[in-house]
Amino acid sequence: MGCRRRVEDPATGLAAGVRAGARGSIVFANGRGDFIEKYLEPLAHWHGRGWNVASFDWRSQGESRGDIRGGHLDSFDALAADGAALIEAWSAEAPGPHVAIGHSMGGHLLLRILAGHRLRLDAAVLVAPMIGINSSPLPPALARLIAQGFCMLGWSRVPVWRGGNLKEGDGSQRSRILTSCAERYSDELWWFQQRPGFSLGAPSWGWLSAAYRSVAQLTPAKLKAIHVPVLLLGTERDRLVSAAAIHRAAGLLPEAELMMYPDAGHELLREADPVRLDVLARIDSFLDTHVPA
Questions:
Q1: Which of 93, 127, 116 is nearest to 11 (CA)?
Q2: Does residue 5 lie within any of the structural domains?
Q3: pLDDT of 92 higher than 80
Q4: What does the alpha-carbon distance between residue 244 and residue 250 come to, in Å, rounded to a whole number?
Q5: 119: CB partners within 8 A, 6+ apart
Q6: Does residue 224 carry a pLDDT above 70?
Q7: Is 147 in contact with 167 (CB distance < 8 Å)?
Q8: Which of 34, 97, 258, 292 lies at a CB distance of 3.0 to 4.6 Å from 30, suitable for a disulfide?
Q9: Is the CB of residue 224 less than 8 Å from the CB of residue 115?
């Protein structure tokens, strides 16, 4: 996919492949704790479909530099600013049409960027986007208050739960939440073994509190003002993000299409092939319709 670079500051760092005669350009924004190598399969798929493809590691993730390593974050504002500057620079250089695809936290930040910045995007795809947090069995308002309370007690950098990714192999609760595909789950663990710094571990109470504050910025008025064709893909049994929030957003975004899978893990692009291939086909069909070659 061409020369690979990492995010070193808010305006640089795309790992990209650019070729003459491409049908357009896609930038992919991954989720919390992710890294470019984890999504080589879908990136290769879109490249094979004729797109220039670019991706990046958020600050403090993968091989990008950042203020804090590990699972802590004080605010999502710096990430949103990074993403906005990066996508703006990418869209000015990469041949159009321009499409942004975001997974989980990346989908959330992409929505924030679309709501707060004028970007030259022709379409967007949000895969299991963090529009809301699944706090079940606690109500979201109570879960947010609990996260704030722990931060007030000085626990902002304390992990929300114990346990590290490297020890959570196939068959663990983490694997069941993410994907039913043992092979793709093991691939992520292989990368953790090769690059231990890629594993962020559990989010901190500060990260969780920051996530609730960031989600609150996606107000109905802001979502209604996003006039870009948006495809939302999610799973009804997602244990990390709120399926109900995805449904609500689809009803507010003026040009939204929605597909919810009844029984799939959070990482739809890394699920077993019956789901994964359908997800890719739906993305291809959406792009063929809204940004035809």
A1: 93
A2: no
A3: yes
A4: 10
A5: 84, 87, 88, 91, 100, 113
A6: yes
A7: no
A8: 34
A9: no
Buried b (16+ CB within 10 A) or exposed e, 11-43: eebbbbbbeeebbbbbbbbbbbbbbbbbbeebb
User: H-helix or E-strand containing 214?
Assistant: helix 205-216
What local confidence, expressed as pLDDT, does residue 9 receive?
Answer: 34
* Domain range for 187: 15-290
Q: Which two tokens stand for residue 172?
A: 């663990």
Spatial distance between the Cα atoms of 194 and 70, rounded to a whole number of angstroms: 17
Amino acid letter for position 105: M
The identity of residue 153, as a single letter, is L
Sign of the torsion angle spanned by Cα atoms 72, 73, 79, 80: positive
Tell me if 109 is assigned to some domain.
Answer: yes
Reported confidence tier of residue 170, pLDDT bands at 50, 70, 90: low
Q: What is the CATH number of the domain that holds 194?
A: 3.40.50.1820
Q: At what angle do helices 77-93 and 105-116 cross, to 10 degrees?
A: 70
Q: What is the DSSP letter of 275?
A: H
At 152-163, the pLDDT tens digits run: 999 999 999 876
As for how many domains the chain has, the answer is: 1
Type of residue numbered 159: P
Over residues 254-282, mean pLDDT:
97
Rg (CA), the chain: 18
pLDDT in tens, 26-46: 999 999 999 999 999 999 999
Return the closest-CA partner of residue 236 out of 225, 226, 244: 244
Q: Which amino acid is at 83?
A: G
**What's the whole-model pTM score?**
0.91
- Long-range pairs of 9-12 with CB within 8 A, sequence gap ≥ 24: 10/81, 10/82, 10/85, 10/86, 11/85, 11/86, 11/89, 12/86, 12/89
